[in-house]
Automatic annotation (TrEMBL):
CDD domains, alphabetized: CMP-KDO-Synthetase
Residues annotated as signal peptide: none
Name assigned to this protein: 3-deoxy-manno-octulosonate cytidylyltransferase (CMP-KDO synthetase)
Record GO biological process: lipopolysaccharide biosynthetic process
Cited Pfam families: CTP_transf_3 (PF02348)
DNA repair in keyword set: no
GO molecular function: 3-deoxy-manno-octulosonate cytidylyltransferase activity
Source organism superkingdom: Bacteria
Annotated Gene Ontology cellular component terms: cytosol
Keyword Transcription on entry: no
Amino acid sequence: MIQRVYEQSSKATQLDQVIVATDDERIFNHVTDFGGKAIMTANTHQSGTDRCFEALTKTDGIYEYVINIQGDEPFISPEPIDNLAEALDGQVELATLVKVIDSDEILFNHNVPKAVLNKRNEVMYFSRQTIPYLRNPESGQWLGAHTFYKHIGIYAYRADVLAEITKLPVSALEKAEALEQLRWLENGYAIKAVITSDDSHGVDTPEDLVRVSRKFLL
């Protein structure tokens, strides 16, 4: 799976380098065996953001931005990675991907984070709850009455901002929703949202592997 993520990410034209950051020697050895680049990091990190920052400090280059691509996305397409990278103009502090929700199953699934955007396509809030709440239409009519966004967990960090946010303590909103990105919003950082038509197909469990294998490989 990690080889597939690496190969798909390497097809993105806007990335200078693809590096696997891991605290597992088995993953490190696997990546180097197939010719990829990997960096060993500490096993004490609480998030992928912290791991990305350590990896950045161990690279031999100077990078303005870091994009955090999850290692459990074997069917990721290079196009949304490029779309995210193209939005990084030096002024953007943080950026992520969102997708328009097109099913009630996703809209009312509390395991799927939602994002609310402002007129500049910056994220105002993330929630596992369905937001915004529509007061008048019945719930079965919500999709036709408003545009809702699913959050896709690929992040871009400006290097100096990445160094800052790794020093922030866990915030109250982050604790409430169990969403790390709320820590950044609560501390006043702006998160640019890039709208994509590509969906996320993470593999977190054996059942997920069966599901996505049937969808993409059969």
